[in-house]
């Protein structure tokens, strides 16, 4: 057991955890932030994607202790109160989910790919960037459409802010 | 299990060497944590090396580059000069997993995980990279092709870690390429991987080359006969045929669900030819 502190969705949290605790278990079980999902045990599926210091990672490939002092954003940290993040809004608008199991990871991966590739990111890049996220029921067609729309919306939000 | 995250190499080595039970280095964790979850390994001590700045840097040295063992694939790709100098190696490192895996996975981990199919290892071997190891008895240098001995078996002694890779200075008109064959387009383990690095003279004749194959034997191979087949040539038809034959002759693959022995041997020749032609094309412009 050891103590770990990090900032999760803007709040500083400190907990004593087992040293084998994965970040995803820490988020779900210790913080009860169950929006981050676990879809596999081989780090393949991407349901667990969160941002750590601004970069998307699979939270099942990080120990909680290795995130000491880091800033973590989960799907719960995207919306602004009742106002959804533009990417969440786009997923809803374009019917980019059925069961929703993969959705938190898809959205966190999408926000990251737009931050790196810009609001005009093309379909080819979106598809290539999604190689770490598996959806078993919606099919990727609507997800890709939603990401393109969400990307454009993120761009105009940023413009409005400037 | 004890978790430690020291900030110097010496402290890391001391921890690893002093552990009586099973000790493991943790870099990106994309192999180790998966193995721990499935109980393939249960370390008593995990030493996280990500806080050691020397292992996280890319520095120019002796006209080449010294790449810290814990630099991630994403950091390699974002480096100002590496992708231009070593496009094949950077490509190989970036085939490892998806974006979210690339943000964590390292070449040190790829090598030390000890898989014959590790993608960046043939890239490093073709590049002629030398690894610097640090252990309780000090530092030593080993060529990358001499580090992995067999699946999960390395030349590292107790407490020793890979600190960095030295990529040598390159003459003009040098470049490299890495290709792998997988049954899908992304996210799979190489059935065959091949790295080629070469140098051309002003007339286009190949003056130096290294060819490395992955996933076709118990460890990634440096195939000297394949390099010899193209050195002194302009990679004409006959030279490429010899290259293919030499690559195939070096293979001692296994049969598994990803590919049969015959298929792997055949593909090794094809990839060697294609990678050599890509490296040649790049070297003409370098
Ligand atoms: C979804 C997914 C897809 C993948 N796809 C690929 C792929 O396409 N190609 C491929 O080659 N691999 C792939 N991998 C495997 C893995 O990501 C790579 O092998 C990666 O490079 C491992 O690096 P790491 O830093 O995460 O290693 P870790 O998991 O941290 O370490 C791996 C092993 O090496 C040891 N180690 C690490 N660094 C050092 C060091 N500096 N000195 C001594 N020992 C050390 C550790 O103790 C451990 O035993 C994939 C993994 C996942 C989860
Ligand atoms: S739960 Fe992390 S990738 Fe599947
Ligand atoms: S919406 Fe069901 S798995 Fe993607």
What does this structure look like?
The complex is a heterodimer of chains A (162) and B (286). Chain A is 37% helix and 15% strand. By secondary structure, chain A is an alpha+beta fold. Chain A has two domains: 2-77, Beta-grasp domain (Ubiquitin-like (UB roll)), CATH 3.10.20.30; 86-161, [2Fe-2S]-binding domain (DNA polymerase, domain 1, Orthogonal Bundle), CATH 1.10.150.120. In chain A, α2 (86-93) runs antiparallel to α5 and α3 (103-117) packs across α5. The termini of chain A are far apart. The longest helix of chain B has 25 residues, at 261-285. In chain B, α10 crosses α11 (261-285). Chain B contains eleven helices and 14 strands. The model of chain B has no long low-confidence stretch (mean pLDDT 96). Chain B has helices at 9-18, 32-37, 73-78, 82-85, 87-94, 99-102, 107-112, 120-127, 224-230, 237-250, 261-285; strands at residues 2-4, 23-26, 45-48, 58-61, 64-68, 130-135, 138-143, 148-150, 153-154, 161-167, 174-181, 192-200, 206-214, 221-222. Chain B folds into two domains: 54-167, Uridine Diphospho-n-acetylenolpyruvylglucosamine Reductase, domain 3; 174-280, CO dehydrogenase flavoprotein, C-terminal domain (Enolase-like, domain 1). Chain B is of the alpha+beta class. Chain B has a five-stranded antiparallel sheet. A four-stranded antiparallel sheet of chain B has the order 11-12-13-14, with helices on both faces. Residues 97-103, 135-138 of chain A line the site of one FE2/S2 (inorganic) cluster.
- Helix and strand content put the structural class of chain A at alpha+beta
The helical percent of chain A reads 25-40%
Distance N to C terminus of chain B:
49 Å
User: Mean pLDDT across all residues of chain B, rounded?
Assistant: 96
Number of helix segments of chain A? 5
The portion of residues forming beta strands of chain A comes to 15-25%
Helix content of chain B: 25-40%
Average per-residue pLDDT of chain A, rounded, comes to 95
Oligomer: heterodimer
Low-confidence runs of chain B (pLDDT<50, min 5 residues)?
none
- What is the architecture of the largest domain in chain A at the second tier of CATH? Roll
Strand order of the largest sheet of chain A: 2-1-5-3-4
Class by alpha and beta content of chain B: alpha+beta
Question: Main interface pair?
Answer: A-B, 29 and 26 residues
